Amino acid sequence: MTQFTTWDIVSNLLLAARWTVLLSILAFIGGGVVGLVVLYCRIARKVWLQRAANLYIELFQGTPLLMQLFLIFFGLPLMGLDVSPWAAAFVSLTLWTSAFLAEIWRGCVESIPKGQWEASSSLAMSFFEQLRYVVLPQALRIAVPPTVGFSVQVVKGTALTSIIGFVELSKASTIITNATFEPFTVYGFAALIYFVLCWPLSKSSQLLERKLNVAHHHH
Amino acid sequence: MAYSFDFSSLADYGPVLAKGVAITVELIVVGGALGVGLGIACAWAKALGPRWLRPIVSAYVELIRNTPFLIQLFFIFFGLPAIGVGLTEMQAAILAMVINLGAYACEIIRAGIEATPRGQFEAGASLAMSPIQTFRHVVLVPALQKIWPALTSQIVIVMFGSAVCSQISVEELTFAANFIQSRTFRAFESYIVATVLYLLLAVLLRQVMRGLGLFLFPRRRKTT
Amino acid sequence: MSLITITEVRKSFGQNEVLKGINLDVAAGEVIAIIGKSGSGKSTLLRCINGLETINHGSITVAGAQLAPDEVHLRALRLKVGMIFQGFNLFPHLTAGRNVMLSPMVVKKVSQKEAEAEARVRLEQVGLAHKFDAYPDELSGGQQQRVAIARALAMKPLALLCDEITSALDPELVNEVLAVVKKLAEEGMTLLMVTHEMRFAREVCDRVVFMHQGRVHEIGPPEEVFANPQTAELRQFLGQS
């Protein structure tokens, strides 16, 4: 039987972690873009758009991410689209992320005082101009800490994609465990790598939050 | 090519689904109760406990909140036997959920404790209560009441997370769906049914928590 | 011909009808004070004129622009009539100067250079040229309200609606804002103001409108309305304030 050194284990885990990082980044960007669209629908002044956005948010927040992964992984092929685990992982994480980000951002937009909408209305700005020049610049500042905080959930969420066979850090851990029979070491190091990825994000979210609460000036 | 849905082939698997639902409920009831208990203990330790205990609790909370539940579960189920702690699937799943929820609940409850006015602690002390007594009788209930909605959301999230317990062969709802799809080859239908059941379970869980809240914080019933 | 025409305007919030058929014509250059108890509908009337509230019945026209709930009509209306709020509502993320420049640039597509020149003129007009680069939270309430006036003026409106613009101010800051409004009145700006400053209304306004329970209860030149109230409600209101 081949002997595995601890370094063999760690280096293989790190190689697999690249995929965790890449998937996290892509899902976060994709989720941000889709999330903006959902946000726009959610706060638009069309009732049916708001309802559709609400339904979207509630569906993705109200069901397990694992089920969403399964439905997309098994569902898209039924529509004639052949999807790899990688594509299914990206699509479902993007949709899931977008729902949460849209909801986080909606809270930020709604925390902008009504007077800001009224003042910009009375200056003849259109809905889009109000958003673009008055509301979003203010909402964005308060949105940064919770958005960074949510990125931690995205990184952790990628672990579920191992279940549909995407080889990232968690899947690699299982594969390596099966070869080395050292689950304690392998899963311990895997947890450590996740921690190293997530903790700086958590911490900076907290620091940004604190900074925002202290700062009263806007420049 | 249009796909034709066929839920009828799932009809025979009602008992399988029912068992899955029952085990998911068991996981969240036991895991939820113990997890909130652990959360309360940790919140007390972090906010009011002895100084030496705080960094230990902080480390636990940070470690859990910054690693995926799946890895925590695998570590407990596959890893711990290597150091002589063997657990059944169900024990491992519940332990993982308790440890996971405990960390999140700790932060949520601590926020509630820290929002308690200083005067409450001082009033408790002036009535000759010990710090623990003040915490138990004066601080805890209003703190829980304040954060009850956030705690409810977190417990729902943990229930959704419990779907991965199927990966260590706990025969909960997702396991049932996996089982059915492997027999019927109706993957999409199987998971749709499971998803809808999760949705309903979440609605039910929120109602139960609301009811529990009304029971634990009866004063609120008058105002709302 | 009148600049603002308000005809049979009715407005309800749910079951509660707050405007019960308002008729009012305002001529160009006229200065009108709207007085009345809180809940009399006076602020709602002002907000309707600017399209911040929709109306259930009747019509409002400002210099040919008709109030209608779609964005095109609202924009046309709001280009003709500016509004000043009780709570200032300056944009906190922009300097005073940028507050004034924003709408001309994005709505009227004025160049940045022109907008800046205009903003300096307007801030000068309210006595705050030196605060061009200050952020709202660095200004006193009175100064913020004057910036808000400059911001509305930069859109070159035909009329200004002032909704209790001194009510949120400390007493010592009220006069600096009223002085600006008075100067605007003297320069011929059409003004419709909801106010509790009776002395100011008496000195500056051409007409006073007393609203009561959603109706125009009395209307006339200030010397008549204040000296010789016709109804018990107005007598009681004036006695209280």
UniProtKB/TrEMBL annotation, chain B:
Keywords: Cell membrane, Membrane, Transmembrane, Transmembrane helix, Transport. It comes from Xanthobacter flavus. Its main location: membrane. The chain crosses the membrane at residues 20-48, 69-87, 93-113, 190-217. Gene3D superfamilies: MetI-like (1.10.3720.10). PANTHER family: ABC TRANSPORTER PERMEASE PROTEIN, MEMBRANE COMPONENT OF AMINO ACID ABC TRANSPORTER. Residues 21-209 form the ABC transmembrane type-1 domain. InterPro entries: AA_ABC_transptr_permease_3TM, ArtM/GltK/GlnP/TcyL/YhdX-like, MetI-like, MetI-like_sf. It is a multi-pass membrane protein. GO terms for molecular function: transmembrane transporter activity. GO terms for biological process: amino acid transport. This is Polar amino acid ABC transporter permease. Belongs to the binding-protein-dependent transport system permease family. HisMQ subfamily. It is found in: Cell inner membrane; Cell membrane. It holds the Pfam family BPD_transp_1. GO terms for cellular component: ATP-binding cassette (ABC) transporter complex.
